[in-house]
Q: What sequence folds into this?
């Protein structure tokens, strides 16, 4: 990754919730980088060195599940990645993180990050709520994998990504996503996702242009996501 100086001490999750008096400490400890599309930012199994915040761009957070990749979530502007490596019992990252496009990142080492938690009460509370929300989302995803059809999981994924990334002027998700990544995110095979996407297209629930997905019938997708 290339170094850069894009951080404004305002945009990321940490800077928004820490004391202004703490910002000079962040300024002196942070390091800023640019990751190219497809570049691995964190590799599963590597020793934990710190956490990253996405200044701009999109990142997929994923892990190996046997011989398959499972995408746990996507991180965009302001989001934190690498926090899963904070543990009293493990010292390696349990996940990988890869840039989906040119992405600007802010990095702080693990010791400074832990000190920041201890000094900043509001940040500690915000991080606790973030972990709670992430656990809730993980449990919901596990339930969907066990009980929901692939079509329903695709509907949930598309609506969730719409809420997270928004739509452009043409009504497409502000995230270009390959079918392989969509399969890894929904816990299905590439072939099944390809076939199911064609069904959603035929039913005029979505529109597709290359790697871009647009929502045509939100009510129809919502109905599928509740089954």
A:
């Amino acid at each position: 990754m290339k170094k850069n100086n894009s951080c404004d001490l305002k945009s990321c999750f940490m800077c928004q919730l820490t004391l202004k008096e703490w910002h000079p400490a962040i300024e002196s400890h942070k390091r800023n980088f640019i990751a190219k599309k497809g570049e691995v930012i964190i590799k599963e199994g590597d020793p934990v060195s710190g956490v990253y915040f996405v200044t701009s761009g999109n990142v997929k957070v994923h892990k190996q599940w046997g011989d398959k990749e499972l995408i746990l979530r996507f991180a965009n502007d302001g989001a934190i990645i690498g926090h899963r490596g904070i543990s009293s019992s493990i010292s390696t990252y349990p996940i990988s993180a890869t840039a989906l496009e040119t992405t600007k990142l802010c990095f702080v080492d693990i010791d400074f990050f832990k000190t920041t938690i201890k000094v900043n009460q509001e940040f500690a509370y915000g991080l606790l709520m973030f972990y709670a929300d992430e656990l809730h989302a993980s449990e919901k995803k596990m339930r969907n994998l066990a009980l929901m059809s692939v079509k329903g999981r695709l509907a949930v994924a598309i609506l969730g990504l719409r809420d997270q990334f928004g739509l452009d002027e043409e009504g497409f998700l502000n995230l270009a996503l390959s079918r392989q990544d969509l399969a890894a995110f929904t816990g299905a095979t590439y072939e099944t996702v390809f076939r199911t996407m064609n069904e959603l297209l035929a039913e005029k629930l979505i529109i597709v242009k290359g790697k871009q997905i647009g929502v045509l019938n939100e009510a129809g997708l919502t109905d599928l996501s509740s089954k």
